[in-house]
Amino acid sequence: MSKQANKIYLVIVAALTVVSLLLVFPQLVNKLLGYLNWKFIPNLSEAPFKLGLDLKGGCHLVYEADVSQVAAKDQKEAMQGLRDVIERRVNLFGVTEAVVSYQSAGASQRLVVEMPGVKDVNQAIEMIGKTPYLEFKQERPEAERDALLVKQQAFQDEMKAGQGQPEAVVNAILQKYSQELDLNDPYYPYFVASNLTGRYVKKATLGFDQTAMTPEVLIDFNDEGATLFKDLTEKNVGKKIAIYIDNSLISSPVVREAIGGGSAQITGTFTNAEAKDLVRNLNAGALPMPIKLISQTTVGPTLGADSLRQSLMAAWFGLLGICLFMLVFYRFSGLIACVSLIIYGGVLLCLFKFVPVTLTLAGIGGAVLSVGMAVDANVLIFERIKEERKKNESFQKALELGFSRAWPSIRDSNLTTLLIAVIMFGFGSSFVKGFALTLSLGILISMFSAMFITKVLMNAFADTRWEKFKRFWL
Amino acid sequence: MPLRTPGGKNLSAFGFNHMLSFTKHRKIFYTASIILTVASLVSMAIFGLKFGIEFTGGSVLEVGYKQQAPALEDIQKVVIAAGLEGTSVQVAGDQRVIIKTKPIDESKKNEVMQGLLSLGQIVAGSESFQVIGPVIGQELKNKTKVVVFLSLLSILIYIAISFRKISRPVKSYIYGFTGIVALCHDIIIPLGVFAWLGHYLGVEITIPIITALLTVFGYSINDSVVVFDRIRENLFKGQAENFSQIVDQSLNQTLGRSVNTSFTVLLVLAAILFFGGATLRYFALALFLGVGFGTYSSIFIASLLVVTIFETRQNRGLLKNKK
């Protein structure tokens, strides 16, 4: 590297340092600008770091969607519909930054709801749980119905006989019949699911049945739903159609004629309040399929803040320890390593902020670990330079050789860690992913900081009177 | 133990600037490692590994009390009143109460929370609650198995590739084999420690701990590779009289590097261990143990084992010649 080139690189390093520090701590600049009253320079964005639920507090819910009634090819669309419904509800609840997504895991479909900073988790879960599941069912073919009725009778008889028996016996009976019957629904033998569900509801309104003097719920279907409803009623003239809400039968009117126009009435034994709730819930969106909460993680905001404070403290102490170590064992070179380590930290934080990387505890752990590994590269280089200087090479030459000969070791020693990190990132759970991401980012930047920043800084002292103090360097 | 030539100046970090004879004392190093490994295996056999709810399914409820946490018996009464038998209750750091039980729903959790509130003042927002259904548990288990398998495979491939270059004076697979022995050593000892911690402090093998051990795998293999690389370099130079001298020379040349690089990593891990809070504590401990023993084994086990294997074969060869 010629002297001239090194000067240019030095400027680049300085610029990188200033820019990354400004971006990481924009408040300082903005305060200064405010103090100077220079209106012509716009304030820097004070966008905060993106923190994960474990640091910010909030909840992460995983629901399993029952897609047994949905054809495989329609599942994706149904899941999108489900996501939209839940998203609307969560927004209604006033949770900002909520993320609702779906994913398939083998044969099952999952809905993941993340609500950072939500204060009342119970209420949020209840709110999601209240999303009604509306479905229309039609009569079963008679032969099938009679067979199921026989089974149901047998089940009831066995349960009666099993009364007072140990739990295991009762469980065995339940187990035996749960395959063929829906044990929670006494009307199961009579009705079978149709493809019309709450997914097609456009709007619900509260009505009043003038003759029976009871409240009723009027449903308007969207176009697709209107067609389905017309087909359903057409096929079932003279038969019953059952309306289920949350898996229990609400009413089962007899169809007199095909109903076009896309609206249906639900009359049942509603109280006024119940009917009102149902209308509100249907308007907020009805579930296209039943969902079940299978996993949840909730972290209180105070706990999150504590974790954040502690992990940052660990990071500072780690950095401090390393700086002391480098200063003691590598003296002035160590000081240069510390400077490049601090620049490394700035660049890493900048990346975290602007990529952006969602920081979790695991992520901070990975980043802190990468600081320890980052300084490795400097150790390797300094050890090599020492060896070269023992051979009485000139300062400049020793630097040159030290950096180029240490590079294969630096590359190899980071390669295996990176390899494992990539595998973890590709296949791991969320903790593993967060750790692997920050660790690998850290390792990559550390290689850059050792091979470029440290080199440029050290080169700046070559051929100056500073290089004469041999013992002072290493 | 470490030999020193008199009058030498200590320039490198830990003063190992003189030729130390590792090969001469290898029996001591082997004995230490064998004792630790056997103790760890025994600890695993007796106590077993306790896996966290991520793998088994279950719930964990944690709350922080403003003052001293209530007595264990009182908390247990609350838990039993909610109909949760077979639940583990722990108090961590005087104020935090950790309750681990089977998967429970929100209303059951609220019932327990009400009970806990009646025992003392709980800091608002200090709670954490996690439920992992059995399905998710099984899934995480499978996922983790895949990650572990792929990581092991990739390290084995890496070893095969990077060791193929050295085939003197023993075949390259022997270098690979000793590298793997060293890795097993680095993993078994932390696992043994965690089995023991699991029994006495209820520490569980969780995803973070498995992550830590895999990271150790990626990190530790390098120290061995570096030493082996040096051995190869010195073999080519061919200055030393015999193999064990070459190994000693190589170990001496790489010692400063191995110790110093591991030391920096151990330093930050110690910072996480002591200041990083409860969630990261055992994660850092697993890494600390793994990196620490990893450095030890790459210096004192892997390359010395190559010497032992070499000498055993040589002796056998000599015996054959005599016949």
From TrEMBL, chain A:
Q: What's one Pfam family here?
A: SecD_1st
Which residue ranges run through the membrane? 312-330, 335-355, 361-382, 415-435, 441-462
Can you say where in the cell this protein is located? Cell membrane
Q: List cellular component terms (GO).
A: plasma membrane
Q: Which GO terms describe its biological process?
A: intracellular protein transmembrane transport; protein targeting; protein transport by the Sec complex
InterPro entries linked? Acrflvin-R, SecD, SecD/SecF_arch_bac, SecD_1st, SecD_SecF_C, SecD_SecF_C_bact, SecDF_P1_head
Q: Name the domain of life this protein comes from.
A: Bacteria
Query: Where does the record place the SecDF P1 head subdomain domain?
Result: 190-288
> Which parts of the sequence belong to the Protein export membrane protein SecD/SecF C-terminal domain?
291-460
| One example GO MF annotation | protein-transporting ATPase activity
Q: What is its main location?
A: membrane
Q: How does it sit in the membrane?
A: Multi-pass membrane protein
Domain (Protein translocase subunit SecDF P1) spans: 80-139
Entry keyword set: Cell membrane, Membrane, Protein transport, Translocation, Transmembrane, Transmembrane helix, Transport
Q: How does it assemble?
A: Forms a complex with SecF. Part of the essential Sec protein translocation apparatus which comprises SecA, SecYEG and auxiliary proteins SecDF. Other proteins may also be involved.
Family assignment from sequence similarity: Belongs to the SecD/SecF family. SecD subfamily.
- Described purpose of this protein according to its UniProt entry: Part of the Sec protein translocase complex. Interacts with the SecYEG preprotein conducting channel. SecDF uses the proton motive force (PMF) to complete protein translocation after the ATP-dependent function of SecA.
Q: What name goes with this protein?
A: Protein translocase subunit SecD
Annotated source species = bacterium (Candidatus Gribaldobacteria) CG10_big_fil_rev_8_21_14_0_10_41_12
Automatic annotation (TrEMBL), chain B:
Look up the record and give one Gene Ontology term from the biological process aspect. Answer: intracellular protein transmembrane transport
* Keyword list, A-Z: Cell inner membrane, Cell membrane, Membrane, Protein transport, Translocation, Transmembrane, Transmembrane helix, Transport
Q: What one GO molecular function would you report for this record?
A: protein-transporting ATPase activity
Q: Which residues cross the membrane?
A: 28-49, 144-161, 173-199, 205-228, 259-276, 282-310
The record's GO CC annotations read: plasma membrane
Which Pfam families does this entry report, sorted A to Z? Sec_GG, SecD_SecF_C
**InterPro entries recorded:** SecD/SecF_arch_bac, SecD/SecF_bac, SecD/SecF_CS, SecD_SecF_C, SecF_bac, SSD
- Keyword Metal-binding present in the record's keywords: the answer is no
Q: Give every SSD domain span.
A: 144-308
Q: Does the keyword rRNA-binding apply?
A: no
- Compartmental location: Cell membrane
Say where the protein is mainly found: membrane
Cross-referenced NCBIfam families: transloc_SecF
The subunit structure is:
Forms a complex with SecD. Part of the essential Sec protein translocation apparatus which comprises SecA, SecYEG and auxiliary proteins SecDF. Other proteins may also be involved.
What role does this protein play?
Answer: Part of the Sec protein translocase complex. Interacts with the SecYEG preprotein conducting channel. SecDF uses the proton motive force (PMF) to complete protein translocation after the ATP-dependent function of SecA.
Give the similarity note: Belongs to the SecD/SecF family. SecF subfamily.
Put simply, this protein is called Protein-export membrane protein SecF
Q: Tell me which species this is from.
A: bacterium (Candidatus Gribaldobacteria) CG10_big_fil_rev_8_21_14_0_10_41_12
**Gene encoding this chain?**
secF
